[in-house]
Amino acid sequence: MNIRTALIRLARATATTAALTLVTAATTTATHAAATMNDPAPEDTVFVDAASLPADELRGLDQPIPYAEYARSHGSKSVAPRAAADPAPGDQQDLRQQCANHAAQAKTATGWLKSRFESCQKRPFDLVLRDVRGTTTLGRLKFDQWVLGFAYDGSRRVDYVASIENIWVQPIPTEDATKWRIGQHFHHSVNASSSDPDPQVTAPQTVNRDELLGVWDTNPHWSLTYTSPDKGALFDQGNQQRVFSTVAMDLSASSPNSAPFNEGSNVYNSSVRYDYAGPVAGKHKGTVFTKARVELVMSQKDPAVNESAVHIYDALNRPERTFPSWPGKSVPGSKEPLRRVVDPKKIEDNRKKSIKECKKVWGDYAGSGLECDEYPFASTKEGSTKGDNRFSVRLIDGKDNRKGGERLNEMYTLNRILDGDPFYVKITN
């Protein structure tokens, strides 16, 4: 009998003593007692989410320690001393700090989307290794998963920096946490039905990393780059070479005798669009995170656009003060998104109808220095010609009106808002 087997038998035979309160009481049947005298067979153990277990099965597992401390106390020779990490680039440091301030969103599968070009997931995991044959819990594993995402205005590329950090463990004496592993497994798909013809995405050469805890602890970060090839400028032929893709990641956790962690599927997903849309998007090509919320923000205290801002505020919050006037009127843009239109004819048709409405209410205003301001904007599908009368017009100062239009166009190009893309409007005091 080797030393490890002897320790396992001794530990399980004395499971009711104070020294082994980590192990819940086994049944007293002779059959189960005999079974627990043997080593677990392959796939007899599994990591499960600690939140899925009753409190009595977590008894004694409330004092995990940092993995490095555990490894040192167990004389592990496979773990090198932690090297001083190179400081992360400023954009990564800033994003990580901001991500921590949005913890609730950051731990979701999509993470926190700071913008169309930056995203972040910080997702804590709390797993328990247990014997699936009975009632034995073998240890606890806690760690943070990070994924930072960077899309680019000007390049058909997206980068991800993934990591496993802050690893804490608490195994029972007969379990060796230096042999536990965590894996991150990336994969992607392309939505051909939404994309333009011949959509392609090139994945990085390495998309899987499955390592011992000690390797993650000393080298937590790794990077992946996805790109989409293009055929040059075809936007003037009506082909923006849009490619809609999803990058997802599965998480694995295992010990030498455990079955795969079965709750780690799609723990992270990222929706991406590559395009070569040309000048309508600002920089001719780029990549965005499509689930990011885009807002046009204007202030009622901004002297350059205060009349535009007050008009939009009234349309969104006091539509009874706006024209055309009708009972129960509501105007989209705050809770319902607006969607951009780039067709010059549709934009001009919206403007003509809005000007007609202004003249109907205020008469001929030529030479007054005032202009007909419309909301929703002429460059949206929700403009005045949509047919539902959920729009507003008002005469405002001409310079203010034109500056408001400039702010709108800046928002379009800074966020790569293409035809049909949604955005919202927020008016501050």
From TrEMBL:
Low complexity bias spans: 80-89
Keyword field: Signal
Occurrences of domain Deoxyribonuclease NucA/NucB (ranges): 351-425
Name of the featured protein: Deoxyribonuclease NucA/NucB domain-containing protein
Keyword Signal: yes
Signal peptide: 1-33
Region spans: Disordered: 76-96
Domain of life: Bacteria
Family annotation (InterPro entries): DNase_NucA_NucB
